[in-house]
Amino acid sequence: MTAPTQLSRTVRDYIRNRSAHGAQSTESTAAPRRSQNLLLSPWAPAWMSLLALVLWAVSLPGVDVSKISGWGLLTGLPPLWYIAYAVALVAVVIALVSQSSRPVGPLRIQMIWRRRLLPSFAALLVMLFATTALVYDVPRYPWTYKHIGVTEYLRIHGVPATALDIYQNFPGFFYIVGVLHEITRIPLMAMARYAEVVAHALNAGVLYWTLGALTRSHRVKALTVIIFTLTNWVGQTYFAPQALAFPASLFVIGAFLRLIAAGNFRPMAGPLLEQLHRGGLFWSRVAALVLSSSIFALIVVSHQFTPIALLMQLAAVAVVFRLRNPWLIGVFTLIEGLWLIHAFPYISNRFDLIERPNYDNVRPPSALSAVLPGADVMARAPHLITLFIVIATIAAVGRIVLRTRTIHTIVVPAALALAPGAILLVQPYGQEGVLRWYLFALPWCSFVIARDLCRVESVGPEPGSVAQTARPRGYALWAKTAAGSVVVLLGVLAVPAFLGNEMINRVWKADVTANQWFEQNTPQGSELLLLVSAYPHKSTGMYDRHVTLDEPAVPRSLGQVDGFSEATGSAKKLFEFTRDYAQTRAAQHDVYLAVGPTQKSYLELYGLVSDKVYDDYLTRLQEDNGFELVYSAEGSYLFRVL
Fold it and tell me: How far apart are CA 572 and CA 620, in angstroms?
């Protein structure tokens, strides 16, 4: 063997031995490092979410709905449910704070979202909004059932009866649900039971996409979605037109911003325009305009309030960007105007389209004072959430302006948040206008808060050109701690906000069955008289055969008749009050009185009728010759007034 050959072999063996030794050293040091960082590994949130879902599923048989009280369902949830929820909440926090704020490509976004945050967020969503769907026999909320009835009516008749009620004049949502029912054969009752979790998931997905026009930061978008979901307590995510119209309005806003960024409507160049992300080539094509117009038309034919609020938001955006030719808003306005002309005969006969500005326009809906222990505490959770959003938004605006020395970065979300409030100047919307303003402003308030926490101030027109303010030393730890603390705080408040009012929100299956019997078996033109409005009425496609009491001047229940509160002190007074009013109604048509556990729960929450008075009242109804018991099952009764 020659000397060069032997030398080369020696060098090769030396390198091989050193490489093997290095690999062993790396493995010996990497294993403990991986074990030390197991909690913060990319897969930790996903595994924690899976664990949380397993614990939650195991806890469901232990949920005791009979323990619902002034504390809502909280007293009926087993300890294991709270443990599962805490694990899911921690998983969301870990997934959120472990993300980078810098822009990432679509493939990277999908990997991060699916592997870390999406499973955690989905688990939290399911626990909050699917628990009641699984433990209750029928859909939540008494006011859900009239929407089921309208859907059934349109399935039977095909054409809306515009003189019947307001929903028949805005049938878009009901037609879509009916088509889905025909395609999937999923019962409408099942759709209504799980509507909340589907609506919240739809809101989250559409909002995440919409925010892509204003930021490319995954963390900002994700944190915005989380804050919005945990603070959206208004209750417009059930089986109702608003549940479809609201995410559709978010889509139209996202589309409109992308259309502006693509050069449509001749926006004025400047720093404000640089806040928008252009998006794909699709937004430069006619198809994008057609899609936006079609979605807006769907909103118009589905809901009364949403298109007006959306038009105000789009008009505010047009002013902010100084659009010189915002013709699409004119098209939207024409669509809304034409449909209002169609619905005007019904609306003008029953509602005041314009009311002069006064305190009533901004006053939230009034309610009785609950007397059960815990009810007052549960009622404060939504107030605390709203207060947090207001204070945190104002603080975030101030901090962003101080950091950037400009208002350019907050003008767009501020315009979108403030614009719907103008409706309150002319229309209180049944004292719900201020709540709807909160709902329409909430995504943009959440966005400002998230932007402040992440310190991602703006997005330039080119992908990847993120403008970030200088971050002081130690900022990363502060930002992650602040973001995590906000999520934990809102996650804790969300439980009483969403599950703390079940004395009113829960509906008994016996009452649903009783109402179905009434609508299917009583003579046409009969009237259903209720003790209080907490009852699942108008739940079948035959509700049009009966007196709907849709006239504002006619009380829909005994609870709305003057003197009801004074009569609830004793069974004798309540019975005489019921008999006297029922007989005045019976002079016009057949009247049936409904009494059941859903109404009893309402009466108990507000201390209107004690158990003893309620039982004695039922006995008097059954023994009196003026009432005939025609239906009885599991505590739900129907009496015919003779």
Answer: 8
Rounded to whole angstroms, the Cα distance separating 617 from 637 reads 12
Structure tokens at 617: 């009242």
Is the pTM for the entire model greater than 0.85?
yes
The answer to whether residues 566 and 609 touch, using CB atoms and an 8 Å cutoff, is no
Average pLDDT over residues 323-333: 96
| Angle value at C-alpha 305, between 302 and 307, nearest 5 degrees | 70
Q: Does the pLDDT of residue 18 top 60, yes or no?
A: no
Cα Rg of the chain, angstroms: 29
CB 212 within 8 A of CB 277: yes
User: What SS3 class is residue 570?
Assistant: coil
**What residues have CB less than 8 Å from 16, skipping those under 6 apart?**
none
pLDDT tens track for 262-275: 989 988 878 888 88
pLDDT single digits (tens) 404-417: 888 888 999 999 99
Per the rule left: phi > 0, alpha: psi between -120 and 50, beta: everything else, 265 is: left
Cα 71 to Cα 374, 375, 381, 552: the distances in Å are 5, 6, 11, 33
What is the rounded distance in angstroms from the CA atom of residue 187 to the CA atom of residue 193? Answer: 10
Q: Which two tokens stand for residue 67?
A: 């323990």
Residue 336 near residue 300, CB atoms below 8 Å: yes
Say if CB 177 and CB 425 are below 8 A apart. no
Tell me the average pLDDT of the chain: 86
Classify residue 589 by its DSSP letter: S
What is the three-class DSSP state of 154? helix
Pairing of strands 527-530, 591-595: parallel
